[in-house]
Amino acid sequence: MYNMGMDILGIKGSGLTRWFWLFVLMGLVVSLTSCGGGEEEVAPEGAEGTGIIPAVEAVEARFGRLPMEERLSGIVRSQNQVEVVSRITALTDQVFVQNGDPVEKGDLLVKLSDREYREQLRQAEANLRIANARLRQAEVLLEEERRTSTRQKQLFDRGLLSDVDLEQTEAALASAEAGFDLAEAQVEQAEATVEERKENLAQTEIRSPVRGTVGNRNVEPGMQVSPGSSLFTVGDLNDATVTVNLTERMLSYIEVGQTVQVVSDAMEETFLEGAVSRISPFLGEGNFSTEAEIDLANTSGVLIPGMFVTVDIFYGESEQATIIPLSAIYRHPRTGITGVYVSSTFGTETPLPIQTDTDDPGPLSIPTDVEFRPVQVVAKGRESAGVTGIQSGEWVVTVGQNLLIGGEGRARIRPLTWERMMSLQRLQPSDLLKNVMESRTSPDNSL
Known about the structure:
The longest helix has about 45 residues, at about 115-155. Strands 3, 5, 8, 10, 11, 12, 13, 14 and 15 form a nine-stranded antiparallel beta sheet that branches. Strands 1, 17, 18, 19, 20, 23 and 24 form a seven-stranded mixed beta sheet that branches. It contains six helices and 24 strands. It has about 450 residues and is α+β, with helices and mostly antiparallel strands. The protein has helices spanning about 1-10, 15-35, 115-155, 165-200, 420-425, 430-440; strands at about 55-60, 60-65, 65-85, 90-95, 100-105, 110, 205, 210-215, 225, 230-245, 260-265, 270-275, 280, 290-295, 310-315, 320-325, 330, 340-345, 370, 370-375, 375-380, 385-390, 395-400, 410-415. It folds into three domains: about 1-65 and about 320-440, conserved putative lor/sdh protein from methanococcus maripaludis s2 fold; about 70-85 and about 230-315, Elongation Factor Tu (Ef-tu), domain 3 (Beta Barrel), CATH 2.40.30.170; about 115-205.
């Protein structure tokens, strides 16, 4: 979302450069709104330099633990999602469903032309009748040869039949037995052919294998389909499964049951929460990664099969540290040092305004001392970071750092709640610019 917003504004460059320009834009927002509200402050006479004292926004640093999370990209599919394909070659006679239609298991989706398959079944049934007749014929012949063999043996035992005649009788019996076995096998073969023809005929009626919703319709009346042709996708849209790839390293700390948050552009500022449901124990050859699956209820329909989503897997907490928003971390363009602008005295000169409305952050303060202080990031989350180098309770600048470069160490500060700051961090630059323009036309010029 962040990169998309930068591209909308035409801001190019590395991730650090883009963050810099984002801070520039946000700083201009504060400057414009403060100027519009008539709250600018000119440096007193005798101070180093003259001009407008910059207006910035700040939040109070906290002390606590930062949730440890892994941000991954996932793809959505509906549960019980199956691809409906043809198993035979035929022309399509009728299609009974459209994309988005709900279906039950067994509902008729497509009717294929069955004329050819009915004829094949008729021929197979005729061949079966012929095979059964041959079997009965072979059975009669076998019984006759058995009776003949019995009489010939009696004659041979009484010395009334030669050895040659007895051997001929036994050979005829063996031939009759072989003929009967062959006829039996031919009947079995004919029966199998009939079953195959019946199955092919049944395949001219393509039915839904599961309960769900139809999508990806790829068949029309008159279309020729062949074995393997994809006709529809059917799945249960009320329940979704998100699949993400895990590296070999991630398997050491990501486990089944850990909390998951799923977000996407379509959800705006909301998210779906679930847990890691399954992890495949096998790594893929070559990429050394595996898949994890997250089952989610999708009754609201915000998850669409095939959608790419952002998945945050929470696997623990950091050690206790000072917590600040990510937007407060600033790399000084002159020194290259990473740090934050801090006001240790903010709120001590005059009481801070009580904020009752997160959409109305309140007025700017009187000119207040600020300083750039290097910090070390010890833990990093999606929207905040744990740092050393500052104390909880100190106010850190989150918007307008670029306006403080080379300044006199003073600024007018607009205090923000954490909730307000988090919502600003989620804004794309285009949304932020829209807010600026709206604020310039509003009666009170509030941000």
